[in-house]
Amino acid sequence: MALTDEEKKKYRREYYLKNKAREAAKQKEYYKENKVAITAYKKKWGQDNKGSRLKSAAKWKKENRGDYLASTKFRNDKGRAELSDGYIKQVITGKSNLKYKDVPQSLIEAKRAHLQMKRLIKE
Predict the structure, then answer these.
(1) What is the mean pLDDT of the segment spanning 25-30?
(2) Which one, of 97, 100, 96, 117, lies nearest residue 108 by Cα?
(3) How far, CA to CA in Å, does 109 sit from each of 86, 95, 106, 112?
């Protein structure tokens, strides 16, 4: 007796839930063995589907405005607290026409040290 597509889908879902740890280990092992090919595929797919990815992201952002704002705030707060490279670049390029890619790593390190000193003085 052949299973319908819906029955196969249900079976696979149940099997995965019952064997979650084993399936996760298999996926991790597969990824480890094929990392280069997977990364290349994902990069190519991203380039080929840039328009649809942007549309999808914009739609999600519009439909989930509260979640989007919360995740953005969390990411910004974390970057500010840790003085991440992205945050430092944002501070440097803030009100100028300088681009992120134009900021050298040495300037990022100097600005990070500057901000750390300012924080220490405030304490």
Answers:
(1) 96
(2) 100
(3) 12, 20, 5, 5
Q: Which amino acid, 34?
A: N
- Residues 62-103: pLDDT tens digits? 999 999 999 999 999 999 999 999 999 999 998 889 998 999
> How is residue 51 written in tokens?
């328009």
- pTM > 0.70: yes or no: no
Question: Above 80 in pLDDT, residue 39?
Answer: yes
Residue type, 103: V
Other Cβ atoms closer than 10 A to 108: 19
Question: How many CB atoms neighbour CB 89 within 10 A?
Answer: 20
Q: Measure Cα distances from 73 to 10, 65, 85 in Å.
A: 38, 12, 17
Number of H helices and E strands in the chain, helices first, is 7, 0
Q: Which two tokens stand for residue 24?
A: 């996760």
